[in-house]
Specification:
Length: 475
């Protein structure tokens, strides 16, 4: 392919990124490649059918417009899948294999029995086979500590419930940062629930749900897809923060309502609480917040140590000679603090070094091997609710005053300060901040931010007050 074609493609990608924003571009276009330019047609490829369907449904005109802005003669954009392998046979029952859970086509219900679904069937309901499950992610391998006790107990209660029992809390909504165990807990719930056999448990990522809905629309089987989903005993949805598209969100909301109203259990995981899911419809957020919302906190040093011990024991099942001295486990637990995936990575490095070189694991070797996993302590994540509480206390007003429409001077200034801090200390957008301050317009928030920015440069007292507030919020 001529380098000039790739240059054009680079410029088109730049236009596309500017049009849709970094987040949307990274989600949907980062893996799109240029295959060829032939006459008035551009041929692009993506790695999955889901990406192809989603881009064709939502961004086809925008992609074409970006190409035409660069090359006016282009009239068509063709999108293909680089390595699409459709399976048209029933997946045979077998023991879980570690390689299977990475195969997006080998979707299973999660119990390895005759309930496995037909993959790539004519109905287009591939999503109803469930997203792939990792056989290692069970309750037996989940290490319980102070930060995840409630979430673990709630998940176990879901499994223990029998068909016809009243649902104790619905939905169960678990949120946590990356690598803190929420996917482990959801997959453990699915494995255990299907093993009990009382109720059919379906595990879907948000991406798989979107793929299933788009596929059903394309094959005109949307009604059957909806009915099948609503017949699930327990619906488990992972990574809800990735659910996008108004029509998909509306369908998710209808499915959620139908399941809850019918007394079916819904379990959801996300990387943030419902109130912080800015892209979701207000009705969905409200319904999610109406269940049991549980946060899985960061892993304490004691829990990290127990996780490491558990993983070493699991590794010994395949590598009997693998041994990690307690001082090494203590060192890793103390210094590798970011999340559980970093702990796994640290142990994998020690195992690889031990097996490939034959050298025993020592503290000196561990210090060398995991050096890049020792990350600086992240600053505390500040929440808008915390800002409102601290500012209200500082200025002797109530939180309801900050959210109200009152325009008296003793309320307006604290409200503006709180909005300013929300913009500077959190990643929330102006519209989201406005919504959290009594449903105000984003222009009101922008005015408040600019007002305080202008005053801070000239008012030393106000500048000092804001620094004190920042220290209180970040300590």
């Amino acid at each position: 392919m001529a380098s000039t074609d790739q240059d054009r493609w680079s410029r088109v990608k730049g236009r596309l990124r500017a049009e849709v924003g970094d987040d949307v571009y990274s989600s949907w276009f980062a893996r799109m490649d240029l295959e060829a330019i032939e006459d008035d047609t551009v041929r692009l490829s993506v790695p999955t059918r889901f990406l192809k369907s989603w881009i064709q449904s939502h961004y086809a005109e925008k992609v074409l417009a970006c190409w035409q802005a660069e090359e006016p003669k282009i009239l068509r954009v063709e999108l293909t899948v680089r390595s699409a392998v459709l399976r048209t046979a029933v997946v045979k029952p077998k023991a879980p294999d570690l390689a299977d859970h990475r195969d997006g086509n080998a979707a299973r219900l999660g119990n390895g029995d005759s309930r496995n679904m037909l993959i790539g069937d004519a109905g287009g309901h591939e999503a109803l086979g469930g997203s792939p499950l990792d056989p290692r992610l069970t309750f037996e391998s989940f290490v319980v500590g102070r930060s995840n006790t409630l979430a673990h107990a709630a998940a176990k209660q879901v499994v223990a419930a029998k068909r016809g029992d009243p649902v104790m809390f619905n939905p169960l909504y678990i949120h946590a940062g990356v690598g803190l165990g929420k996917t482990h807990l959801l997959q453990a719930t699915t494995w255990a629930g299907n093993a009990v056999g009382e109720r059919k448990v379906l595990y879907l990522t948000a991406e798989k749900f979107m793929y299933g809905f788009v596929s059903a629309l394309r094959t005109q089987t949307a009604l059957a897809f909806k009915e099948a989903l609503r017949g699930i005993g327990v619906l488990v949805i992972d990574d809800l923060q990735f659910l996008q598209g108004k029509s998909t969100q509306a369908e998710f909301c209808h499915t959620l309502n139908a399941l809850i109203d019918a007394g079916r259990q819904v379990v959801i995981a996300s990387d943030r609480p419902p109130s912080d899911l800015e892209s979701l419809d207000d009705r969905v957020r409200s319904r999610l917040a109406g269940g049991l919302v549980v946060e899985m906190g960061s892993l304490g040093e004691e829990l990290r140590f127990e996780i490491l011990k558990s993983r070493v024991m699991a590794a010994r099942a395949h590598h009997p000679g693998f041994d990690v001295p307690l001082p090494v486990l203590t060192y890793i637990a103390k210094t590798v603090t970011h999340n559980g995936r970093d702990l796994e990575g640290a142990l994998n490095r020690l195992l690889a070094h031990n097996k490939l070189t034959g050298h025993p694991v020592t503290l000196e070797m561990a210090e060398r091997e995991v050096r890049d996993l020792i990350r600086p302590q992240e600053p505390k994540r500040v929440k808008i609710e915390d800002i409102q509480r601290v500012v209200a206390r500082q200025y002797n007003v109530s939180r309801s005053d900050l959210l109200s429409s009152r325009r008296t001077a003793n309320v307006v200034r604290p409200r503006q300060v709180a909005m300013y801090l929300a913009k500077t200390l959190t990643l929330r957008s102006l519209p989201e901040i406005g919504r959290r301050f009594g449903g105000r317009d984003h222009t009101t928030v922008l005015h408040a931010v600019r007002k305080i920015e202008g005053l801070v440069g000239n008012d030393n007292v106000l500048a000092e007050e804001i620094e004190i507030l920042k220290r209180q919020l970040q300590d």
